[in-house]
Amino acid sequence: MQCNLLKPFRWLAVQVCLLCCLLIVTACGDETQDDGKFHLRIAYSPSLCQAPLHLAVELGFLEEEGIIAENVQVDAAHVQEAVGANQVDVGFGLIGKFLQPLQNGLQIKFTAGIHTGCIKIFALPNSGIREIKDLKGKRIGVPGLAGAETLIAKRALFMNDIKIDPRNAEVEFVVFSRNELGQALQNGIVDAVSLSDPAAAQMIESYDAVTIVDTAKSPEFASEYCCAIFVSKLLAEKHPEIAAAFTRAILKASAWVAEHPEEAAKLQIKYKYVAGNPEFNASILKSYNYKPSVKGGYDAIVVSSGQLRDLGVLDKSTDPEKLAKDSYIFFDNVKDTYSPEESVPPKKP
After folding, report:
1. What are residue 23's phi and psi, to 5 degrees?
2. Quick one: pLDDT band at residue 78, thresholds 50, 70, 90?
3. Separation CA 46–CA 319 (nearest Å)
4. Of 84, 216, 238, 242, whose Cβ has the fewest other Cβ atoms within 10 Å?
5. pTM of the model
6. Could you tell me the strand order of the sheet in which 225-232 lies?
7. Mind listing the pLDDT tens digit for each residue in 280-290?
């Protein structure tokens, strides 16, 4: 009798279990859509230099590669957390700020260098600061101590024999929010600022500031790719063909931006990726070298990680070549770069 009474409850338990399994499968989602295209979560931020990433979505370069893009807006400072939480599959960022997290186990693989430039160090015209050596004994405003802007400043100081070791530092780094850095410079709280574009270019124009380092032009950095694209390690392992397709699409979009900076600037504003004046934004895009290179991104990791090791930012045991090999992936069906002729948008701009 008791056994018979329990039967309905057992049946109900089985049904609940089946329903839960169905919900789990649904929540995980199928990575392909009905039309067979792959659903890809793209981390993006309203950064001007991410033009190739933005326009690969809008001009159909990704769709041409069989990818349906889901834009996930992530503040540049939190991209690493988004990858770690499996909220995004791919993204775009400053190489320097990823190196220490990579050494600590960040689960990404870089796949191509996209452009040079985009970080500037500058001071007010009446400051007397004209070159790196003039920063000795000064205070440099930065948006964060672990950010790429600080790492570039440290590398520039290191190359000019200015000590940055906290125990015997010849400069002081002072952190302010990006919105407060201009006021701190005007009020003399800091003597110089290290900042990324477009905020850096806007501030230099507004204050008629003196540019001390421009990573797009200064000889120490001009040929080094500062920004690169990456894929999650999970995507690279499970779907290498999609990681390769994403890389091809962004390389082609980069080559298109290099040939059409004015149009790229207008489209970024049209699709609400960035704000600002299209002519001013185009002038900044023109200052970057949007001639993407798979090998260029790899070489940038080797150079920057070697210097950051010598600076004490990375472990003293760091082998730059090994770090680059461990954090990079090359695809047989992805060329090192693409010409403008190979980069015609599938959709009309």
Report:
1. -65, -40
2. confident
3. 34
4. 238
5. 0.84
6. 67-73, 38-44, 90-94, 225-232, 108-116
7. 999 999 988 88
